[in-house]
Amino acid sequence: MRLIDADALIEQINGRHTFTKSAQEELEKIIYNKACADLITLIKNAPTVESKRRGRWSTRKGSLEMTCSCCKKNTIYDGRSSYDFCPNCGAYMYD
């Protein structure tokens, strides 16, 4: 998967047509513009993907607090489970 700039892509689609004024070319322009409009609608309605933040927990010996390397906030470790993400900022934690 790759992230794209949808606004830049829409600009490129809108700027790709240059036609002269014959009847056949005018019909092609109408069809092309309809296809572009449909494509732009698909792009605008597509789900967005946000890049995932990655971090690591740091702990001090003898402490139940874990500190997120991304937001620097502390979380209490209960000793029974491990957090795969920071409950404060949502960063995914490396193993």
What labels describe this entry?
two-stranded parallel sheet; rod-shaped; 2 domains; 15% strand
Question: How would you describe this protein?
Answer:
With 95 residues, the protein is α+β, with helices and mostly antiparallel strands. The chain has two domains: 6-45; 54-93, no CATH class. It is 34% helix and 15% strand. It has two helices and five strands, in the order H-H-E-E-E-E-E. The chain has helices at residues 6-14, 23-45; strands spanning 54-55, 57-59, 65-68, 74-76, 92-93. The strands form two sheets. Strands 2-3-4 form a three-stranded antiparallel sheet, with no helix packed on it. The chain has a two-stranded parallel ribbon with strand order 1-5. Strand 2 (57-59) and strand 3 (65-68) form a beta hairpin. The radius of gyration is 25 Å and the shape is rod-shaped. The two termini are 23 Å apart. The mean pLDDT is 80.
